[in-house]
Amino acid sequence: MMQRLIHILWPPFLVAGVADILFTTLFDPLEILYRGEPLIEHRIAAYTIGFFVFWLLGIASSMLTCYFQRGADEINRCPLPPRNRPAGCPKREDEDACC
Amino acid sequence: MTDDKQATPASADAPIEQQLYAIRQKIQPRAVHGVFANWRIALVLLTQAVYYGLPWLQWDNRQAVLFDLAARKFYIFGLVFWPQDFVYLTGLLILSALALFLFTAVAGRLWCGYVCPQTVYTELFMWVEEWLEGDHLARKKLDKSPWNANKLRRRGLKHLAWIVLALWTGFTFVGYFTPIQTLGAEAASLSLGPWETFWILFYGFATWGNAGFMREQVCKYMCPYARFQSVMFDSDTLTVTYDSSIGEPRGPRSKKTDYKAAGLGTCIDCNVCVQVCPTGIDIRNGLQYECIGCAACIDGCDQIMDKMGYPRGLIRYTTENVVKGKYPDAGIIKHVLRPRTLIYTVLLALIAGAFVYSLATRVPLRVDVVRDRAALSKETDEGMIENVYRLQLINMDGQPHRYTISAQGIDDLEVAAARETTAAPFQTIDIPVSLIADPEELKGRSIEVTFTIQATDDPRIRDEVATKFFNR
Ligand code: SF4
Ligand code: SF4
């Protein structure tokens, strides 16, 4: 579980850092206007929010990757009743695990 | 990788899935003393003296190294950079990457073993741990013992010390991005801004988590460098290596036994090299990507060799080719020079040269044109065409300057407003400039024009920017 968490959180963290640096060097956040007013008043606040927005987007993408990565046998219903499942099968102890 | 590796069930044969979900065994490495341990201590102290001390250093009445995010200005001693100087940052990154390639090709994971913040903070945190919780055996016992007053006190003290260290690290980190003296004053009066507070806590939390808990897992699962460092290795790269040619066959024996006569190698199978390893691997299984090259196993093994009266260096820095018997240890130096390292060195020298040259000849003036989209061009009362621009001028010099503004590209083009301006040291100014041209001279809808901004006191300080002049 720990490693799946790392897979989901960590690559987007790295990418968000790079994206934030690139984005904020290209654009001064104070010049991003929304109806004529700067969208965010403080630069540090803008950098921080920018970082977390990038991170969240990346997390969403990584979660989808993990979700689509599940193999067929993880999705399919197991044909064996739980007790007969081979040792080491994560669904063995779980009576109502079906999918 | 040697064949022994294949035989370790946990690594090669286990199904991938099981590896991914295998519960991590907490590693409590045994402390070692020796030459390389001393190097590590020295480098921890050196890097941290620089890291914690640098933001307090002053230069010209300002912080010597400050990446002032709020003002979008980076100060590095006498130099000041703006976001427009992004190319220097890129250059610096390329230089660091090449230097890392070079070091890795020559001597493996020197970076990981001695200076990577992950290693350094883990080391710092482990010193605290050893001090408050005792050696590796005491710590293992404490891990197993039920929660009682003693455990609570020891653990509590440890975390308190860790948290203080982590917060100080976070505070220093933020001090590189906002002036640290103000930050310190604000922290002392408990009036830190919300964003600064957030980043101090965030970075502190990351330090505490990475150095206190994640430790070798960061290297194994999160570090990009650890994943690709092996492509920079070749058979002449110095790495921490177990010399199986003298160690095997391994086995326990008494000190008095003549091991050669008994058909044994010098490895007494005491497992010290495994106990000291912060990543929990057995170096005797050959070069593994988990090995961060910290050389703790060298120190550990050398101690045992001394005790047994055997020659040191069963585990040592050496190359694959030496172990294979292609040349003796003395030949390592000669093999440092090889095409791969030469190419890295030449590239490094070229880019470093270009970097220094362009910094040295950098003109301390930069001008950008900002066009006002609403008011492109208009006709004046005299029937002339006028275009209005905004010039953004950065005086990158430590001196104030007066500048003249002129424009070329159209016959009889006139700069109507702001023919001169001044800027204080390191100041960015916005100046509206209007250009007036005779419609007779205008051929086409838009014409290329060039602004020339020239310092009055120094002919070398000038900048040109091209833009367009719009006809009606
Ligand atoms: S593997 Fe990565 S994180 Fe670990 S010591 Fe090396 S560079 Fe640092
Ligand atoms: S095998 Fe040796 S050099 Fe590699 S990480 Fe372990 S102790 Fe350090």
> Sheet with the most strands of chain A?
2 strands, antiparallel
Strand segment count of chain B = 16
- Output the number of helix runs of chain A: 3
Task: Write down the domain tally of chain B.
Answer: 2
Oligomeric state of the chains? heterodimer
Distance between the termini of chain A: 18 Å
Which value, in Å, is the CA radius of gyration of chain A? Answer: 22 Å
List how many beta strands of chain A DSSP finds: 2
What would you report as the Rg of chain B, rounded to the nearest angstrom?
31 Å
* β-strand amount of chain A: under 5%
**What is the average per-residue confidence, as pLDDT of chain B, rounded to a whole number?**
88
How many DSSP H or I helices of chain B?
18
Instruction: Supply the helix-strand structural class of chain B.
Output: alpha+beta
Unreliable segments of 5+ consecutive residues of chain B: 1-21
Most extensive contact:
A-B, 19 and 21 residues
In what order do the strands lie side by side in the largest sheet of chain A? 1-2
Alpha carbon gap, first and last residue of chain B: 74 Å
Secondary-structure element order of chain A, as H and E? HEEHH
Description:
Chain A has 99 residues and is mainly alpha-helical. Chain A has a domain at 2-68. Chain A has helices at residues 2-26, 43-69, 72-75; strands spanning 33-34, 37-38. A two-stranded antiparallel ribbon of chain A has the order 1-2. In chain A, a hairpin with a 2-residue loop joins β1 (33-34) and β2. Chain A is rod-shaped. With 472 residues, chain B is an alpha+beta fold. Chain B has two domains: 21-362, no CATH class; 365-470, Immunoglobulin-like (Sandwich), CATH 2.60.40.10. Helices cover 44% and strands 18% of the residues of chain B. Chain B contains 18 helices and 16 strands. In chain B, the strands form five sheets. In chain B, strands 8, 9, 10, 12 and 14 form a five-stranded antiparallel beta sheet that branches. The radius of gyration of chain B is 31 Å and the shape is elongated. Chain A binds chain B through residues 1-4, 6, 10, 14, 24-26, 28, 42-45, 47-48, 88, 90, and chain B through 18, 20-21, 24, 69-70, 72, 83, 86, 89, 177-178, 193, 195-196, 198-199, 217, 221-222, 224. The structure holds iron/sulfur cluster (SF4) (2 copies). One iron/sulfur cluster is lined by residues 240, 276-279, 281, 283, 291-297 of chain B.
